[in-house]
Design a protein that fits this description.
heterodimer; A: two-stranded antiparallel sheet; B: alpha/beta; FAD/NAD(P)-binding domain; five-stranded parallel β-sheet; 24 strands; globular; binds flavin-adenine dinucleotide
Chain lengths: 103, 409
């Protein structure tokens, strides 16, 4: 485990930059990490991030399809918000561990 | 009389019926098991069918041959579970009361979830091998196929037996080499994951194997639709893969009945505690196998290990004791790699597959995370073990908990 300073705040992250302690997350940190990924966060982004954090806290699997079924956005739109690898990027910005793409 | 009701007479339901009938007094407990189909399929055998190594008779037997005397069997579709009133309704209107309930209804493939997958090319150029119908149709297709673009695609995870698609492409490589047409067949493996497998070390080893066999891995490919006119797979980020033969592993879901009963997640997998196997909703409902939302492989070996835990914990619940057993996510899979060889992986919730020997440290006879002939025989032997030992709930020389002995860090 290592630490990283984001927007002046020290947080615990793993080798790939994912938070290891989701409680350290704030919206300001999200903004800064998103900027590193070249993403400007909108309300829609935040709604997805909150959805992921909520599922994570309940121990539920984080899948692209679950975002598509969330009523917040469809899968195509999810790819639009977080281009490339949406689940990995969104998890990183949401301050939760990298989703272990289910076995 | 009290009743233990088991839903689903596949791998998990059958094992539990056998184990529990031995433990529950016959004058006190009725055991009833319900399934919609009379035939038991040895599903791991579906992998061998497209390549003509097995045919239908090798993988089917009547379900009743594996259920013990003293278990009532009902062949009927289950309509819903009424957990609040301890009742299960069947399609024909019959209602069954229970004291304890085991959900073992497995998972099913749902090609309808992906636009165009079950279109005009279904079972003409597009096949699945996770059903007997798909596997046999593909066997017929391969008999006369002159070659072209062969694409295996996993539509989404989780899927049953996550190594089966890898085995499929490695078998395909060997099959076309042996027929002397490998140069006419281009094999691709398009997966929504970032590599060949979910866990890093196994992914590396298996990825290297695919490369060696000249199988093209296309990672992070998340299928949106299939264009039948252009014979093209299209991903959500608008990448395209052309195919002449598409072998699909469609989206998996639990049975719709789980969703109707309010006991599942959005994919209809029954929500249950990953260690105790108890339902999140009712203390007298337990879940085993593919039907559950457990974060481990959906595999027969997992079902077998879970059965030991569930037997203990169910007895605890019945006798009003705290749970004494905890499932660790143990999974153990033989992986066919073609040309008479195989690999083996052994892992759980917390430990990824590691190299070493199994089940006896330093001796084997099976090698972990490497290709050997012995591992291939292990897989072939598994069919016999499945029918004769596993389903009947008899003891096997493998502990339900994973062990680090014999593994190299
Ligand atoms: C191609 C392939 C290869 C595989 N290879 C391997 C392998 O090498 N090793 C390994 O360990 N595992 C392997 N597996 C996985 C293994 O077969 C399954 O994980 C295992 O059979 C799951 O057991 P289960 O009891 O959870 O479900 P199942 O055995 O699928 O049983 C579920 C039962 O519930 C019944 N049911 C469902 N809904 C209803 C309803 N509404 N009403 C009535 N009945 C219902 C079904 O008819 C079925 O009989 C493979 C699977 C496939 C498809």
């Amino acid at each position: 485990m290592s630490q990283k300073v984001i927007a002046g705040v020290t947080v615990d992250v793993n080798e790939e930059g994912y938070f290891t302690n989701p409680a350290q997350w704030t919206k300001d940190l999200a903004l800064a990490i998103a900027a590193e990924e070249g993403i400007a966060l909108t309300d829609k982004h935040y709604a997805v991030l909150e959805f992921l954090r909520e599922r994570f806290s309940k121990g539920e699997a984080l899948t692209i399809r679950s975002v598509g079924n969330s009523g917040i956005i469809d899968i195509k739109g999810f790819y639009g918000l977080f281009p490339g690898a949406p689940m990995k990027k969104a998890a990183k910005i949401a301050g939760i561990p990298k989703p272990a793409s289910c076995v | 009389m009290k009743r233990l009701l088991i839903l689903g007479a596949g791998t998990g339901g059958t094992i539990m019926a056998n184990k529990m009938r031995k433990l529950l007094a016959r004058d006190e407990w009725e055991i009833t098991i319900v399934d919609q189909h009379k035939t038991h399929y040895y599903q791991p055998g579906f992998l061998f069918i497209p390549f003509g190594m097995y045919t239908r008779p090798d993988v089917v037997k009547p379900k009743t041959s594996f259920l013990p005397l003293g278990v009532e069997v009902i062949f009927q579709e289950i309509d819903r579970i009424d957990g609040a009133n301890n009742h299960v309704m069947l399609k024909d209107g019959i209602s069954l009361r229970y004291d304890y309930l085991i959900i073992a209804t497995g998972t099913r493939v749902v090609p309808e979830e992906t636009p165009g997958l079950k279109g005009p090319l279904w079972h003409k150029n597009i096949f699945d091998f996770y059903t007997i119908e798909g596997a046999t149709a593909l066997a017929d297709f391969f008999k006369t196929w002159p070659g072209g673009e062969l694409v295996l695609n996993i539509a989404d995870v989780p899927i049953k037996c996550p190594v089966a698609p890898l085995e499929f492409v490695m078998f395909a490589d060997a099959f076309f080499v042996e027929r002397g047409v490998r140069s006419k067949v281009n094999i691709s493996y398009a997966t929504p994951m970032s590599g060949a497998f979910t866990k890093p070390r196994a992914s590396k080893v298996l990825g290297a194997l695919l490369e060696e066999k000249n199988i093209n891995i296309i990672p992070d490919f998340y299928l949106e639709k299939v264009d039948n006119d252009r014979k093209m797979l299209v991903s959500y980020d608008d990448r395209e893969i052309p195919f002449d033969c598409l072998v699909t592993v469609p989206v998996h879901k639990g049975d719709a009945m789980i969703g109707r009963s309010g006991l599942g997640d959005e994919m209809d997998f029954a929500k249950a505690h990953k260690h105790t196997l108890q339902s999140d909703f009712f203390p007298n409902i337990f879940v085993i196998g593919d039907a559950g939302n457990f974060p481990t492989s959906k595999a027969g070996s997992v079902v077998h290990f879970q059965a030991d835990v569930l037997t203990e914990n169910l007895m605890c619940a019945i006798e009003n004791r705290p749970f004494t057993e905890s499932f660790d996510g143990h999974s153990n899979c033989y992986i066919e790699t073609g040309f008479g060889k195989g690999a083996l992986i052994d892992f759980n919730y917390d430990t990824e597959p590691l190299p070493g020997s199994f089940p006896f440290p330093g001796i084997g006879p099976f090698g972990l995370l490497k290709e050997t002939r012995m591992n291939h025989y292990g897989k072939l032997l598994f069919r016999w073990i499945y029918w004769h030992i596993l389903l009947k709930g008899k003891e096997m020389p493998i502990d339900s908990k994973m062990t680090m002995a014999g593994k190299k860090m």
